[in-house]
Design a protein that fits this description.
With 280 residues, the protein is of the alpha/beta class. It has one domain: Vaccinia Virus protein VP39 (Rossmann fold, 3-Layer(aba) Sandwich). The chain is 39% helix and 22% strand. It has a seven-stranded mixed sheet with strand order 3-2-1-4-5-7-6, with helices on both faces. The chain binds S-adenosylmethionine. S-adenosylmethionine binds next to α2 and α3.
């Protein structure tokens, strides 16, 4: 059986606190949220859904671009994440809904949402159900904008190749785990990407959403940011029967082989879709 703390998920206070601290101290989720909010064309919006909104980094980016009279619904199924958001992001234009993304159509009026924005989460959901539900709530011409982590989409920005000066922290973690714990990565690690564009496109078509634009973007950061990210319990590695304390010990040894300012690059597949204007 997996150790107790190996199964910590999003609905755990330790994860939520660590995630909120990371988004406060480092730019990644703020930057990617702002990028999506821009692409959602919010200037004239009245109702916007922040899908899988977590502690509110994306809602904050949406609120900064939406007009004063707009309303934002931040929906996430992890109450622990939202407890922090409710405490730290108080804005009369924002409401919090604890529910699965697949049920967004139970929590927003049909055909009246100007935009749905989903930062750094779509591959964790049942995309067929989410796309169909998002389509139901969007007004004709309304946008559904989301990004997919490069590893999950099977894309790599050119900067990810050129920007790297040594092995990635992930590689070092696996080396330390192999050396100190006899760890061998599960076969699943080498499988094909979980959510390539071809599969996204098929599901969009099935749901009645049009693909407007895609772009592979690069998020530039440092080893120090990567280490902080890998300290968040849900992201800590390696997978398998390790306690969180063991993972943090492995991370410490791996990080000691790098330098804090070394550049790291994370690739994203950014996807802009919309409900066609003339669809029934
Ligand atoms: C990496 S966080 C992103 C949060 C936020 N969008 C941001 O940029 O900070 C992923 C979030 O997705 C949520 N999530 C994952 N699967 C979900 C689902 N099926 N329905 C609702 N929320 C989900 C998790 O609870 C978590 O809060």
């Amino acid at each position: 059986m997996a150790p107790q703390d190996a199964v910590l998920g999003w609905d755990e206070d330790t994860t939520a606190e660590a995630y909120a601290a990371f988004t406060h101290d480092f730019p990644m989720y703020g930057d990617t949220s702002r990028d999506l909010a821009h692409r959602a064309h919010l200037t004239d919006s009245r109702l916007v859904v922040d899908l899988c909104g977590g502690t509110g980094a994306t809602a904050k980016a949406i609120l900064a671009l939406a007009p004063p009279g707009a309303h934002v619904i931040s929906l996430d199924n992890a109450a622990a994440m939202q407890r922090i958001g409710r405490r730290t992001l108080t804005d009369p234009r924002l409401s919090w809904v604890t529910a699965p993304a697949e049920h967004v159509d139970h929590h927003a009026p049909a055909g009246q949402v100007d935009a749905v924005v989903c930062n750094s989460a779509i591959w964790k959901t049942d995309i067929a159900a989410v796309f169909a539900a998002a389509r139901r709530v969007l007004r004709p011409g309304g946008r559904f904008v989301f990004n997919i982590g490069g590893g999950f989409a099977g894309v790599t920005h050119p900067d990810e190749q050129t920007g790297r000066t040594g092995p990635s922290l992930n590689t070092l973690i696996h080396q330390v785990a192999a050396r100190d714990h006899g760890y061998t990565p599960p076969a699943a690690d080498s499988k094909s990407p979980k959510l390539p564009l071809a599969s996204v496109t098929e599901h969009l078509a099935a749901a009645g959403l049009d693909l407007v634009d895609t772009e592979v973007t690069a998020q530039h950061s440092t080893m120090a940011e990567k280490r902080a990210w890998l300290s968040i319990p849900v992201f800590a590695r390696p997978a398998g029967d390790f306690t969180h304390a063991q993972r943090m010990e492995i991370l410490k040894k791996a990080y000691a082989q790098t330098s804090p300012d070394a550049a790291t690059v994370t690739s994203w597949l950014v996807t802009v879709t919309q409900r066609a204007s003339r669809q029934p």
